[in-house]
């Protein structure tokens, strides 16, 4: 924009100030456009907030639509003999477990040497390891001039050795200690030819310090043997972790706590969504201002669709079930309420019906699945909310074009005013010059006339 600071010099008028006022008045035409742009941006933010709340509700519905939720099991243990974990295959019931013997890994200590860092093997040789299960027998290659520590490292580096090796000091010398990697009688190490490998070994015999043993336990009086202390299959769907000798009682129950948590999260997510849409469509919102989405058709469709899904019953095995059967109810204000005791009763009386109500059976989807589908459609790229956002973005683009065009017209108008004011300034300057000249001439004429009269 060209400078207007020279205007008014010729005329003495405040043309700069007048042009500034005209420019301010012209730019006021942009304010309604800017306000409309801001309104569209507020709407887009409000749609985004609605999408976030709806997405949270969809996640809660998806969790409640998972059949495995209603198949979950808890394993509670009294007594310190075992710990237990149950999966969906476990049958509810009470099981008595008695641990008579824990599984243990076998260990062996070789003959002594005086110095673990001294060479004890003059030539390359083989260290033979034998086990209760002959299929585990193996040979470890020992390099020439190896020390006790070198032999230890060679054993630990051999993936077929089936033992872990360490060097211990028994107070009289250093010995190679070998412990089976697996527990159980068959995995127990039983012997080695260390005395033939180590030239400097003393005459003490290799000693099995602990024989490997299987775990022995009873479940409801039935004897069971296990090679490990983690026992699977003794109770279907339950993993027992044996801790010590003694007795424990394992009680398997349905995981109602997780079901309660999922239903509660579902109710909370719906009410949060309802609160969000209610606030955004309120006639008198924050500080008395109407909500950003008041009267919005997409939000009305959302609320109507979800209410319709909630109100419709669900058929489970040919029997119709309603929200109230599960302890759920829609309040007058549109929020969803949960009666935890009623849900407990439904789970106790007919857990399959509760599962079917939320997840559906083979012929018809349940409530949670139905709501999940509705939420997914509303959140889809072609859904009502995305279409509304796209519409608002298109309107912003149109308003941006209108804003730019209006700015150009304002500049053209101001340029025209500036040209006209420049012409006015020049004309007034010429008139002022003419007026000054005439005034001077008239003044001179008046002086000459007065002199002639006196003569």
UniProtKB/TrEMBL annotation:
<comment type="subunit">
    <text>Homopentamer.</text>
</comment>
<comment type="similarity">
    <text>Belongs to the FliD family.</text>
</comment>
<dbReference type="InterPro" id="IPR040026">
    <property type="entry name" value="FliD"/>
</dbReference>
<protein>
    <recommendedName>
        <fullName>Flagellar hook-associated protein 2</fullName>
    </recommendedName>
</protein>
<dbReference type="InterPro" id="IPR010809">
    <property type="entry name" value="FliD_C"/>
</dbReference>
<dbReference type="Pfam" id="PF07195">
    <property type="entry name" value="FliD_C"/>
</dbReference>
<dbReference type="Pfam" id="PF07196">
    <property type="entry name" value="Flagellin_IN"/>
</dbReference>
<feature type="domain" description="Flagellar hook-associated protein 2 N-terminal">
    <location>
        <begin position="11"/>
        <end position="105"/>
    </location>
</feature>
<keyword id="KW-0969">Cilium</keyword>
<feature type="coiled-coil region">
    <location>
        <begin position="382"/>
        <end position="420"/>
    </location>
</feature>
<dbReference type="InterPro" id="IPR010810">
    <property type="entry name" value="Flagellin_hook_IN_motif"/>
</dbReference>
<dbReference type="Pfam" id="PF02465">
    <property type="entry name" value="FliD_N"/>
</dbReference>
<keyword id="KW-0964">Secreted</keyword>
<comment type="function">
    <text>Required for morphogenesis and for the elongation of the flagellar filament by facilitating polymerization of the flagellin monomers at the tip of growing filament. Forms a capping structure, which prevents flagellin subunits (transported through the central channel of the flagellum) from leaking out without polymerization at the distal end.</text>
</comment>
<keyword id="KW-0975">Bacterial flagellum</keyword>
<keyword id="KW-0966">Cell projection</keyword>
<keyword id="KW-0175">Coiled coil</keyword>
<dbReference type="InterPro" id="IPR003481">
    <property type="entry name" value="FliD_N"/>
</dbReference>
<keyword id="KW-0282">Flagellum</keyword>
<feature type="domain" description="Flagellar hook-associated protein 2 C-terminal">
    <location>
        <begin position="212"/>
        <end position="433"/>
    </location>
</feature>
């Amino acid at each position: 924009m060209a400078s207007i600071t020279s205007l008014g010099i010729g005329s003495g008028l405040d043309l700069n100030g007048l042009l500034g006022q005209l420019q301010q008045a012209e730019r006021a035409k942009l304010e309604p456009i800017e306000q409309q742009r801001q309104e569209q941006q507020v709407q887009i933010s409000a749609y985004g907030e609605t999408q976030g709340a709806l997405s949270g509700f969809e996640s809660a519905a998806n969790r409640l639509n998972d059949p495995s939720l209603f198949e979950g099991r808890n394993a509670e243990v009294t007594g310190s003999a075992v710990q237990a974990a149950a999966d969906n295959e476990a049958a509810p019931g009470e099981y008595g477990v008695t641990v008579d013997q824990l599984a243990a890994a076998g260990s062996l200590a070789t003959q002594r040497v005086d110095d673990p860092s001294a060479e004890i093997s003059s030539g390359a040789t083989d260290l033979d390891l034998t086990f209760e299960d002959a299929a585990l027998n193996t040979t470890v290659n020992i390099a020439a001039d190896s020390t006790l520590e070198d032999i230890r490292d060679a054993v630990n580096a051999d993936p077929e050795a089936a033992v872990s090796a360490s060097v211990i000091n028994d107070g009289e010398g250093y010995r190679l200690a070998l412990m089976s990697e697996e527990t159980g009688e068959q995995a127990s190490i039983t012997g080695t030819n260390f005395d033939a490998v180590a030239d400097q070994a003393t005459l003490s015999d290799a000693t099995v310090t602990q024989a490997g043993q299987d775990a022995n336990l009873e479940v409801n009086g039935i004897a069971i043997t296990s090679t490990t202390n983690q026992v699977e299959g003794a109770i279907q769907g339950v993993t027992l972790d044996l801790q010590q000798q003694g007795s424990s009682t394992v009680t398997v129950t349905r995981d109602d706590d997780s079901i309660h948590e999922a239903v509660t999260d579902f109710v909370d997510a719906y009410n949060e969504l309802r609160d969000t849409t209610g606030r955004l469509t309120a006639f008198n919102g924050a500080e008395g201002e109407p909500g950003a989405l008041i009267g919005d058709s997409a939000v009305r469709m959302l609320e109507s669709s979800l209410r319709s899904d909630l109100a419709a019953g669900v058929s489970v095995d040919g029997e119709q079930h309603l929200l109230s059967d599960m302890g759920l109810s829609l309040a007058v204000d549109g929020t969803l309420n949960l009666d935890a005791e009623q849900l407990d009763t439904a789970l106790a009386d007919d857990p399959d019906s509760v599962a079917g109500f939320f997840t559906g059976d083979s012929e018809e989807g349940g409530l949670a699945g139905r709501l999940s589908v509705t939420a997914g459609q509303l959140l889809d790229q072609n859904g009502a909310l995305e279409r509304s956002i796209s519409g608002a973005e298109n309107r912003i683009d149109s308003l941006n074009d209108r804003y730019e065009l209006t700015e150009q017209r304002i500049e053209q108008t101001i340029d025209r005013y500036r040209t006209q004011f420049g012409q006015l300034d020049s004309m007034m300057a010429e008139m002022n010059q003419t007026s000054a000249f005439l005034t001077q001439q008239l003044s001179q004429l008046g002086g000459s006339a007065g002199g002639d009269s006196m003569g």
